[in-house]
Design goal:
This protein has 3 domains: 4-50, Rubrerythrin, domain 2 (Single Sheet), CATH 2.20.28; 71-266 and 391-402, Citrate Synthase, domain 1; 268-373, Cytochrome p450-Terp, domain 2 (Orthogonal Bundle), CATH 1.10.230.10. It has 18 helices and 6 strands. The chain has helices spanning 33-37, 73-79, 82-91, 97-109, 117-122, 130-144, 155-181, 194-203, 214-227, 234-244, 249-261, 268-281, 286-294, 315-330, 336-349, 352-356, 364-373, 381-402; strands at residues 4-9, 12-20, 26-28, 57-60, 65-68, 71-72. The strands form 2 sheets. A 3-stranded antiparallel β-sheet has the order 1-2-3. It has a 3-stranded antiparallel β-sheet with strand order 4-5-6. The chain binds acetyl coenzyme *A.
Length: 428
């Protein structure tokens, strides 16, 4: 294969380097095109634009493949823990037992959140969406750790910011839940592992400690692992873009949390449950809602279906569907919306509209059903996604800084008015 592409514009030929990834993915490097030809490339929604080279996550949407640092997601979900996967994503290799122990202890040591942050929490009304609280409190961490604002942080300082965020996000996430139900917050307990600690902070109350159920801990580990990274998606690109201006890790991740909140992205897990509830309340006729989703005059979309990059199946959805079955049967829960979800999936997978457009259930389709079974309220679902995605955001932010990437700044094609003369207000 030639190591350059040839582009002919207005009769002139330009040679553009070809970049090939380790999985043989190919790209044309157009970074010099504008300077040489005056042309930019236009790609609304970045459907075909690579923004970086990255060694963190590989995914092949056509084949339904996803791996973190070379390890298939199926194996990680089966054999690993969320903290181990976080180490893998952030530092690039699986930890030894001693490294994992040290990493886990460092996270535990930083789980307490400055008591002054509770005053900020207290300012939120109880109806505040927990994602808004999460984003605001993560951004507020810059005020408590102003050294994080230094754009020339040493490796150790950067590392400390990353550990602090890994530790404190679960505490803040549990706070955001306690704010909505008006209960006293719980402090973390160092004797507990990461997932058990989070469940304790969510569900213990002054009258009794949360009894940790291994089925629930196992399901939570799986869910967090499956969400831990997904290369250059909307929120991760946001984190990298904000970070490229040398904004702090906390501000960058806070922006990522806001991007994740949107219903077309991580907010879809909440939207799926709301949709399934709506179908149930309407009599449970899934066919009617499939028809609505196909009707171009109807704004209704099948939430949890379709994906920008998966055009075969989402490998995470397969694991989550099985986990949903396992968790519900282990906990002895019969959730009628699980049946509606399965009917909807079956109907959609046999319908030409969905087949032609390659629309399959995505990671969000079944995750909400598991969260519900674990006792997590609907408004907290996207917070759970953020908790899972955090090591990915951190790893991507770190990689962007270590690769010394330039500030992100897309171009545009202007289609507005040509220069015109200002008209004084009395003459308009
Ligand atoms: N229901 C009905 N039709 C759909 C759906 C859906 N969920 N998703 C896509 N389509 C249709 C579109 O109308 C379009 O049809 P057309 O070609 O006739 O115009 C075609 O399928 C392609 O869809 P696009 O919107 O162009 O695909 P895009 O890649 O831009 O969007 C997205 C992907 C946002 C995920 C979309 O599929 C969607 O809105 N899904 C529902 C929301 C959702 O589940 N989001 C979570 C994604 S996973 C995540 O972010 C963690």
């Amino acid at each position: 294969m030639s190591d350059f592409a040839e582009l002919i514009l207005e009769g002139k030929s330009y040679k553009l380097p070809i970049v090939v990834g380790t999985e043989d993915e190919k790209a044309i490097d157009i970074s010099s095109l504008r300077a040489e030809s005056g042309f930019i490339t236009l790609d609304s929604g970045y459907k075909n634009t690579g923004a970086t080279t990255s060694a963190i996550t590989y995914l092949d949407g056509e084949e339904g493949i996803l791996s973190y640092r070379g390890y298939p997601i199926e194996e990680l979900a089966e054999k690993s823990s969320f903290i181990e996967v976080s180490y893998l994503l952030i530092y690039g290799s699986l930890p030894t037992a001693a490294e994992l122990d040290a990493f886990s202890k460092r996270i535990k040591r930083h789980m307490l959140v400055n008591e002054d942050m509770r005053k900020i929490l207290d300012g939120f009304p109880s109806a505040a969406h927990p994602m808004g609280i999460l984003s605001a409190l993560v951004s507020s961490l810059t005020a408590f750790y102003p050294e994080s604002l230094k754009s020339n942080q040493t490796k150790d300082e950067m590392d400390l910011s990353m550990i602090r965020l890994m530790a404190k996000l679960s505490t803040i996430a549990a706070w955001s839940f306690k704010n909505s139900n008006g209960q006293r917050i719980n402090y973390p307990k160092n004797k507990l592992d990461y997932c058990s600690n989070f469940l304790h902070m969510m569900f213990s109350d002054p009258t009794e400690d949360y009894e940790v159920n291994p089925v629930v801990v196992d399901a939570l580990n799986k869910l967090l692992i499956l969400h831990a990274d997904h290369e250059q998606n909307c929120s991760t690109s946001t984190v990298r873009l904000v970070g490229s201006a040398h904004a702090s890790l906390y501000s960058s991740v806070s922006a990522g949390i806001s991007a994740l909140w949107g219903p077309l992205h991580g907010g879809a897990n909440q939207a799926v449950i709301e949709m399934l509830e709506q179908i149930k309340a309407d009599g449970g006729d899934s066919k009617k809602f499939i028809a609505k989703a196909k009707d171009k005059n109807d704004p209704f979309r099948l939430m949890g279906f379709g994906h920008r990059v998966y055009k075969n199946f989402d490998p995470r959805a397969k694991i989550i569907k099985k986990t949903a079955d396992d968790v519900l049967s282990a906990l002895g829960i019969k959730d009628p919306i699980l049946n509606i979800a399965k009917e909807l999936e079956q109907a959609a997978l046999t319908d030409p509209y969905f087949i032609e457009r390659k629309l399959y259930p995505n990671v969000d389709f079944y995750s909400g059903i598991i969260y519900r079974a674990l006792g997590i309220p609907t408004e907290m679902f996207t917070v759970m996604f953020a908790l899972g995605r955090l090591p990915g955001w951190i790893a991507q932010w770190k990689e962007m800084r270590e690769q010394k990437e330039p500030i992100g700044r897309p171009r545009q094609i202007y289609v507005g008015e040509n220069t015109r003369k200002y008209v004084p207000i009395e003459e308009r």
